[in-house]
Amino acid sequence: MGPSLDVSVILVAIAPFLAAALAPAVHRFTGAFAGWFLAIVPAAIFLFLFGFLDEVAGGEPVRASIDWVPSYGIGLSFLIDGLSLTFALMISGVGTLIIVYSGAYLAGHPHQGRFLGFMLAFMGAMLGLVLADNMLALYAFWELTSVSSFLLIGFDHARQAARRAAIQALVVTNLGGLALLLGALMVQHLTGQWDLSGVRETGDLMRLSPFYAPVLVLFLLAAFSKSAQFPLHFWLPNAMEAPTPVSAFLHSATMVQAGVYLLARMTPILGETQAWMATLTVFGGVTLVWGGFSALKQIDLKQMLASTTIASLGLLVLLIGQGSEAAIAAMVVYFVAHAFYKAGLFLMVGVLDHGTGTRDLTALGGLMRKMPVSFVAAVLSGVSMVGLPLTVGYLAKEEMYLGLAHADPSSILVLLVVVAGNALLAAVGIAIAMRPFTGATVETPVPAHEGSFGLVLGPLVLGLLGIGVALATAWFGHDILEPAGTAILAEPVESHLTLALDLGSILFWLSLLTWALGAAVYYQLDALRALLRRADAVIGWTFDKGFDVLMFGLVRMAGAVTRFLHHGRLEVYLVVVFSFFAIALLAPWLTLGGLERLMPPSALGTWAAQWSWSDLTVYEWAVVAIAIIGLVALVIAQNRLVAILSLGVQGIAVAMLFLLFGAPDLSFTQFMVEILSVVVLTLVMTRLKLDERDHRPFEDALRDGTIAVLCGLGVTLLLSTILTGRLDNELSGVFLATSVPIAHGHNVVNVILVDYRGFDTLGEISVVMAAGIAILALIRGQRGAGRIPLPPARSERIKGMVR
CA neighbours within 13 Å on the CB side: how many for 233? Predict the structure, then answer.
């Protein structure tokens, strides 16, 4: 691949972020047409990626890489194979329609530009995730999806429910993110590869490793948290606090599909083991049934769709766990079908909400005549969700039953679970597509009216795609299914998709059973909803409430720890800090033979000689005298002011030592620090009585004196031991050799501070700056409080609040 194509592929993941940065400005200049203008970016990405279909279908993955951290052999690498291309096409294609929809849905909203920026960043994070080959890049984009979804779910930050939902999603998915990072580091350590394509080439190395189990658990935790698998499913329904375009995008082709993608990508590396198959099948099956029944309990259309998303994610995970060619083919087809119908239905629900003012299923009815376009869009997506013939949903269902229709007991049990789950999904699909539009006309909060062109375009196109792609069965099987299945299984997969009905096949009768059960559940929907809600009331506990209890306990524990460690008694802080400082100095020195090294019997005279005082000059004696005078004055100080000034004398002595031994810049810094310290301490102490001596009990003085002597002794012994050893000039040589050619500085000390220790110096400057600002704020606050007393009424209100 040439450099230009490398840049083009990498730009696919970067372009949405650039568009996101420009979104507020675009909205400011284009107004109501901002969605149309910004949709050009995902549309261009879709067309660019669509051009790789033939190449990828021919068995030639496209790779792109640039140096990222070359010193560690880490590159920012991307891979376009059948799996990543399928996901990327769905993300960019569905994303294009949702960006257009967002412009119409939030028309007139003061923060529409910011919202569109968040949506594009969300798209960019997901595109980077599915295209990344490097595991660290995958992790970075993984976390970006969590951050961008947090911003989108909490977009209406004035509502407490939205803030809670955003925090809950961030906490749960970040837990999986940490697991993914640790798992990636373990895989790299075991295989020596950062790229997933390189890890796949190691064959069974990971499966045969003694660390297979912990790696498997980490990757499953990452995938289950992101794709809302039981019992980490509870955050997804709460994410419906986000605006409808977010829900449509998040549930169809992004975010929650990231975990499914990760499991599919890791199948050649961690799959084909009993632990893999059993875990994914069990958790996927439980999630499928749980989500299906949860959807029956809801009356809010968005909540119903959210619960069916949980069920669909469980179905995808179950199919990956089965691992057969037909099951993987079903997983790929169902992913495409689900993206089409779920995005279409969510967008249609947004149209209903706009056009009627409610999403309550029981408060809607008879809208067919007033909202005919929405009705057609709902039916088109609904038939695919039910899995009727001539839809992609039908192809997916047929492939599922083909992969699971085996005679062994475990396969029969899994097949029954899938049939039951599909029937529940079919019932909910019928309810959402039909109930709001049929039956008696119900008066709605807003007079029912059809949505604008920007609102109805997305649902209509997605509904038509659910049928059109199915009709192009041969193309779909050859260009989408086969490359994606081959990438997942690491072996050729052959498509046998067909729309033909074989009345004598077991697959047809399983489909018929599914439709019959779905219709039966739909006709008993109200009764089943009432029964399930009564069961919830009896149980009285949910995973969502459990999360609240856990977070409340975490906050309480953090408060208790904070009160224990940060009690506000400065004296105790200093005693603890300097006690551990003395231990840190003396314990290693004693246990590692510091005494023998400092004073070996044969070298006692040599050691004593180096402490000879006869070589000191007059001015060096003067510095020693200043230090001793300052020390004595500090110890016998009768009041705080004298103690502060005496402490400054000690600092001046240290600064003069720096000056005498060839470090004038350090000396100047020390002078400034000492002068500033004395001035600041004096200013802070002005509100205390500086002419009085602090009364200190004898035991306190003995304790503090002992700690001070131990700290001084530890520093002295450590430095003496270092001076008696061999001076290693290797690091100094590096600084001297590279100071001018690399850092372009002749003052080596400055180069060390600014370049080699740049972040350390920046941190020190930041601390000093923050301390100075805090002190200035305290001084100004005290003066302001003295000049501007609070009005009596406001003072009384504040006292009342405090009480």
Answer: 23
* Gap between the Cα atoms of 674 and 58, Å rounded: 73
470: left (phi over 0), alpha (psi -120 to 50) or beta: alpha
Structure tokens at 447: 């007079």
Residue 280 pLDDT > 90: yes
* pLDDT tens digits, one per residue of 219-278: 999 999 999 899 988 899 988 888 999 999 988 888 889 999 999 999 999 988 999 999
Has residue 499 got a pLDDT over 70? yes
44 membership: H or E segment, kind and range: helix 40-50
Contact 424, 295 (CB under 8 A): yes
Q: What is the pLDDT of residues 131-176, one digit of tens each?
A: 999 999 999 999 999 999 999 999 888 888 889 999 999 999 999 9
At residue 762, what are phi and psi to the nearest 5 degrees? -60, -40
In the numeric block, which tokens belong to residue 111? 């923060």
Measure the CA–CA gap between 427 and 768, rounded to whole angstroms. 65
Residue 393: closest CA among 373, 372, 422, 362: 422
Q: Check: CB of residue 526 under 8 Å from CB of residue 220.
A: no
Joined together, the tokens standing for residue 730 give: 């290797």
Nearest Cα residue to 345 out of 385, 312, 310, 372: 385
Convert the pLDDT of each residue in 661-708 to its tens digit: 777 777 887 888 877 777 777 666 666 666 666 677 888 888 888 998
> With contact defined as beta carbons under 8 Å apart, do 506 and 400 qualify?
no
With tokens 């003067």, the residue in question is 622
Q: Would you say 285 and 414 are in contact if contact means Cβ atoms under 8 Å apart?
A: yes
d(C-alpha 466, C-alpha 669), whole Å: 72
Q: Give the tokens for residue 773.
A: 């600002």
Question: Residue range 103-117: average pLDDT?
Answer: 89
Residue type for position 784: G
3-state DSSP assignment of residue 76: strand
The rounded radius of gyration (Å) of the Cα atoms in the chain is 35
Q: What is 251-315 written as a DSSP string?
A: HHTSTHHHHHHHHHHHHHHH-SSHHHHHHHHHHHHHHHHHHHHHHHH--BHHHHHHHHHHHHHHH
Report yes or no on whether pTM surpasses 0.85: no
Instruction: Say if CB 122 and CB 42 are below 8 A apart.
Output: no
Tokens of 25: 């400005």
The contacts found for 609-613 with CB under 8 angstroms, 24 or more apart, are 610/723, 610/724
The token pair at 315 is 């179905």
